[in-house]
Design a protein that fits this description.
heterodimer; A: 392 residues; globular; B: 281 residues; eight-stranded antiparallel sheet; three-stranded antiparallel sheet; 40% strand
Chain lengths: 392, 281
């Protein structure tokens, strides 16, 4: 007997009224529907994967027939694929009420834009300064991410711009020993993203974009600062004062970093009154990150190894504070990234010490057990924290 | 609202299209209007370590000798302008300047490049490689291996004339004393050779015998003059050339690839075509 018949019997028996039966059936029918959010996500994921496959196919067709296609045909193919994909995305997303498929096609268009830049660079053997291509890709994608408030496009733009910074620095640094600038510059970049993310997290039209920027910014800071906790990294790189004469555009880099820091401060200072406490905490956290990033640029080389201990302590405190802030302000992104950094930090310190003081085979076994325990503990505490955040 | 959004969207799309058209247009303009010259490579490698099917060209003008260059050490990525002069159908280095030269003779041409590395020898001796044959148990293709070593793995010790300088030299042997350069290779294709050391002794390193995968190559040379020289590594954006996967005739070669280049009015260089040496075709 199905629910419909059962409830009919209950009405006949006078247990429930017909009104109550209708409400019960309506409730059960709603509950029986597949999770709409899940369905939406599945649609977006499938459309994005489809877009990626089509994009890869187009690029492969053009690349593998490069010699057989005349320059004008090449240009035509590249531009047509870009324009058609973007236009189709707009048409479906904005006029035909297929927003997920439409946005996926615009995301594909952004990928094609980057692919076109590199195909043209390949055709004309442009290698002189490859970061310029990455910069153009990022700057060309960012306005679309803003227009559509798209997480995927925002992530693509931020990742490409992060890559551009790395590429630009690697061009200016002669060798690994000159890689000192990577940490401070990436710290400023991460801080800028984080502050922008915090500033626009509750903005109606920029919510998703801000969340992506904030999380990626935090990730960039944590990754950039991590090498400072290693003795060898400090001792094998040169300090900024030693590099001053060798890096073209160093004053410009320093100036840009200061501008980034000021923008970050403005972003946090202009947060709404209800977010004042959060802004103060985040401001203090960001200030520490900037201090550590730029401070590290002056203490490098032999004789400065001991600074790695100081940086490790600061890093550890930063991670703990991040977890605390995640719990305090019910922020899952802070908890997740904080736990990730905590795990990486513990593992790094374990291998630092175990390699020196323990037999190798034993170090592997203990390391494996530690890894399992850490994974279990982190997952458990993450769930607990998130559950507690939800209930509070 | 929708029409405003559409307007913004169209502007972004136009910007993306303009970037692509601008990149192509800039290069096509140089190819159409630039002056044609032919450069010969010293050697090339058909694979680029990160990008695969890209020939890596090494032109004699990539290393230019300077005298009292300021600032020293030079800033990386600093623009420089190299004047080439034509002699016997060959374009050779004439001079290098930090700013675009105001006057250039008709038989000369200006090439714009950027500094990517530098080298300074302050009283160290040069090791002149006198014999590239294989004394004893050497590996195959020593010349190719040496070129790879010089240009890719060991750029800081390389001199434009293929000689090496003894960076950590502390003794005071007389000029002309026999010297041996020890190279080691661990891969099966004998492709990647690294410097093991420069020594007065031709004796193989006993450590190599213990490792069955290691091959040692000993290049014979003599101690050259103690020198004071400055070099700039200059790249012009023509050091890489995309090779279609269809063209299997591209193999590792020592040199003589003829690269036709067009030079724009501002010194920008664009590869027009590449002619492989007879051996490779």
């Amino acid at each position: 007997m199905n629910l419909h018949d059962k409830t009919n019997n209950w009405v006949t028996a006078g247990i429930i009224t017909s009104e109550q039966r209708d409400r019960l059936l309506a409730f059960e029918a709603r509950d029986a529907q597949p999770d709409r959010r899940g369905q939406r996500r599945l649609t977006a994921t499938l459309a994005t994967l489809g877009a990626l496959l089509v994009g890869t196919g187009i690029i492969l067709i053009i690349a593998s027939n490069w010699d057989k296609i005349s320059p004008f045909e090449k240009m035509g193919l590249l531009l047509c694929s870009l324009i058609l994909t973007q236009a189709l995305g707009w048409w479906l997303g904005e006029t035909k009420d297929y927003p997920r498929v439409g946005r996926s096609l615009n995301f594909l268009g952004s990928i094609l834009f980057g692919a076109n830049i590199f195909l043209v660079a390949q055709a004309y053997n442009i290698r002189a300064h490859w970061p310029n291509g990455v910069l153009m890709w990022g700057l060309g994608t960012l306005p679309l991410a803003l227009l559509f408030n798209s997480s995927a496009m925002a992530a693509l733009a931020i990742v490409t711009l992060t890559g551009w910074i790395g590429g630009e620095l690697s061009f200016r640094c002669m060798a690994f020993v000159d890689s000192t600038l990577f940490v401070p510059v990436y710290c400023v970049w991460g801080v800028l993203l984080l502050a922008i993310g915090e500033r626009f997290r509750d903005h109606r039209n920029l919510r998703r974009l801000a969340a992506t920027a904030g999380s990626l910014g935090l990730f960039v800071i944590l990754v950039a600062e991590f090498p400072l906790t290693f003795r060898d990294f400090i001792s094998s790189t040169r300090s900024l004062s030693e590099l001053d004469a060798q890096i073209a555009g160093l004053p410009v880099l320093v100036g840009l970093s200061m501008v980034g820091a000021v923008i970050s401060a403005v972003c946090l200072a202009t947060l709404s009154r209800s977010k004042r406490r959060e802004a103060l905490w985040m401001g203090a956290w960001i200030f520490t990150a900037l201090l550590m990033g730029w401070g590290s640029a002056f203490v490098r080389g032999h004789g400065h190894q001991m600074y790695s201990v100081l940086f490790a302590v600061i890093y550890f405190v930063q991670v703990i504070v991040l977890l605390y802030l995640g719990y305090l302000f019910t922020r899952a992104d802070l908890v997740n990234l904080g736990l990730l950094a905590f795990g990486a930090f513990v593992l790094a310190r374990y291998f630092d010490l175990a390699w020196k003081y323990m037999d190798r085979s034993l170090a592997f076994i203990v390391g494996g057990v530690l890894l399992l325990a850490l994974g279990f503990g982190m997952e458990r505490s993450r769930r607990k924290l998130l559950a507690r955040m939800k209930t509070s | 609202m929708t029409s405003k959004r559409l307007g913004i969207f169209l502007m972004i799309l136009l910007l993306q299209v303009l970037v692509i058209v601008g990149m192509v247009g800039k290069k096509q303009w140089v190819l159409r209007t630039g002056r044609a010259i032919t450069l010969r490579t010293e050697a090339y490698d058909p694979t680029e370590i990160f990008r695969g099917h890209y020939a890596v060209f090494n032109f004699p003008i990539n290393w230019v000798e300077v005298s009292h260059w300021t600032p020293w050490p030079p800033k990386r990525e600093a623009p420089v302008y190299v004047i080439l002069k034509e002699q016997n159908n060959h374009w050779e280095f004439a001079s290098v300047h930090s700013e675009f030269p105001s006057s250039v003779a008709p038989e000369q041409i200006v090439l714009r490049g950027v500094v990517t590395n530098h080298q300074e020898i302050r009283g160290q001796p040069v090791v002149e490689l006198t014999d590239l044959t294989q004394p004893g148990w050497l590996a195959t293709q020593p010349e190719d291996a040496l070129w790879r070593l010089n240009t890719m793995l060991w750029p800081r010790r390389r001199l434009p004339d293929h000689n090496l300088y003894w960076m950590d030299y502390q003794k005071h042997l007389p000029v002309g004393a026999p010297i041996y350069v020890h190279l080691v290779c661990y891969d099966k294709q004998d492709k990647l050779w690294t410097l093991q050391g420069i020594d007065e002794s031709p004796q193989p390193n006993p450590m190599m015998k213990a490792n069955p995968n290691a091959k040692e190559m000993i290049l014979q040379g003599k101690l050259g003059k103690y020198q004071e020289r400055q070099f700039l590594r200059v790249e012009y954006g023509i050091e890489n050339y995309f090779i279609s996967e269809m063209k299997s005739e591209w193999t590792f070669q020592r040199g003589n690839v003829e690269v036709s280049v067009r030079i724009g009015a501002n010194g920008e260089a664009v590869i027009e075509s590449v002619r492989l040496p007879e051996k490779a075709r």
